[in-house]
Specification:
Layout (H helix, E strand, L loop, with lengths): L12 H10 L8 H4 L13 E2 L1 H14 L2 H4 L3 E3 L17 E7 L4 E7 L3 E7 L3 E5 L2 E5 L4 E4 L5 E5 L5 E7 L1 H6 L5 E4 L37 E2 L1 H14 L5 E4 L14 E7 L9 E2 L3 E14 L2 E6 L3 E4 L5 E15 L1 H7 L4 E2 L2
Antiparallel strand pairs: 1-18, 2-3, 3-10, 4-9, 4-11, 5-8, 5-10, 6-7, 6-9, 8-12, 13-14, 14-19, 15-20, 16-17, 16-18, 16-19
This protein binds 2,5-dihydroxybenzoic acid (GTQ).
């Protein structure tokens, strides 16, 4: 395996011109751009978006742009490696911070990418997904799978803010991203499935043999259940840290086709250094305060902040107070493609 490949410059000009005229280019000068040795060479840089500045900017957007003119009133968190305006926080993950004011609605649409929301602030917000009304409370994870109709509403009296995570970059890359619009959905008059079918881990409704189960049976993961699970795990684990995966309660597998979600509890004084993973990630701080070092970049985070991490990064978390983070990653996609990997530190 050669480390020194031929360059474009060493080829005669007439040959280079003839290649251009024919609409071709030699692979060898560009080979390492797309096939670097040993591990990928990410464009993504670690990003940090403190909530205080996003909140101020979002509330101003609320004054400047009515929801009717925005459809979705969202500030997009751009990967610093790609620059402001990039509609992605990492190679595969888009995140945006969305504001809905009291009484507003964001109209119904459905699209090929999948979305999930992590609720950041406010009470009375809800999303309707295929007729199921999903209340949005702080820290809840609410899914909007690709192809499902969804609209957002607000019955409270203060602004509601949540973080959107979508696999949009992947769909844009595939030239597969588009949306359809429709009138607001009729809502079924029953609580969401986390309060009916899936109240407790390990228990699912009994069904007749031929009964079909919805592809996405549970679309809201209430934070109070997640935090309680983490606390018990941490109490009986070591060092007071714990991490849980959000799964489909009928299959035990990933909740969406490409994106996965975990919740972490970090205890002060117990540093956490996960293996280097082939996945990129976006972290959202539900509560707490601490520091994460990503490939040498230090991020001092506090409650409601968001930060991002490229593939194969060296990540070291250290909480200074009891902290809870949600991690968005793309392991489901990588597992399907057969290349998910973890490397010991
Ligand atoms: O709430 O449906 O941040 O369609 C980007 C695209 C949110 C949404 C975003 C969307 C939505």
């Amino acid at each position: 395996m050669s480390d020194i490949l031929g360059t474009l410059e060493e080829l005669p000009q007439d040959y280079r011109d003839a290649m251009s005229a024919a609409g071709v280019a030699p692979l060898w000068p560009m080979m390492r751009n797309v096939l670097p040795h040993g591990q990928p060479n990410p464009v993504t840089s670690p990003g940090h978006w403190p909530f205080a500045s996003l909140r101020t900017l979002l509330l101003r957007a609320g004054e400047l742009t009515p929801v009717e003119k925005a459809e979705r009133r969202v500030l997009v968190l751009s990967d610093p490696g790609r620059g402001v305006g990039a509609m992605q926080a990492t190679s595969s993950i888009y995140v945006g911070m969305q504001l809905l004011l009291p009484g507003e609605t964001a109209p119904a649409h459905r699209h090929t990418p999948s979305a999930a929301r992590i609720i950041v602030e406010g009470e009375g917000g809800f999303t309707v997904v295929d007729g199921e009304k999903l209340p949005m409370e702080n820290g809840d994870l609410v899914l909007t799978p690709g192809g499902d109709w969804h609209d957002h509403g607000h019955e409270g009296d203060k602004p509601v803010i949540w973080l959107d995570a979508l696999d949009l970059p992947l769909f844009v890359y595939l030239e597969g991203s588009y949306a359809e619009e429709a009138p607001l959905q009729a809502q079924r008059n029953r609580p969401d499935a986390s309060q009916v079918e899936y109240r407790a881990a390990g228990i699912v409704p009994t069904r007749k043999l031929e009964a079909t189960v919805r592809r996405y049976p549970l679309m809201r993961y209430p934070w109070k259940n997640t935090e309680a699970a983490l606390r018990e795990l941490a109490r009986f684990g070591d060092g007071g840290t714990a991490e849980v995966d959000f799964v489909n309660p009928e299959t035990g597998t990933d909740v969406l086709p490409t994106m996965g979600f975990t919740a972490m509890m970090l205890a002060p004084g117990t540093p956490e250094s996960p293996p280097r993973r082939s996945t990129s990630a976006v972290f959202h701080v539900v509560k707490g305060r601490g520091r994460t070092t990503i490939n040498g970049t230090v991020i001092d985070w506090s409650a409601k902040d968001t930060f991002s991490c490229p593939v194969f990064a060296e990540v070291d978390h250290e909480a200074t107070e009891e902290s809870f983070l949600v991690r968005v990653h793309d392991r489901p996609l990588q597992t399907k493609l057969g290349y998910y990997e973890e490397r010991a530190r």
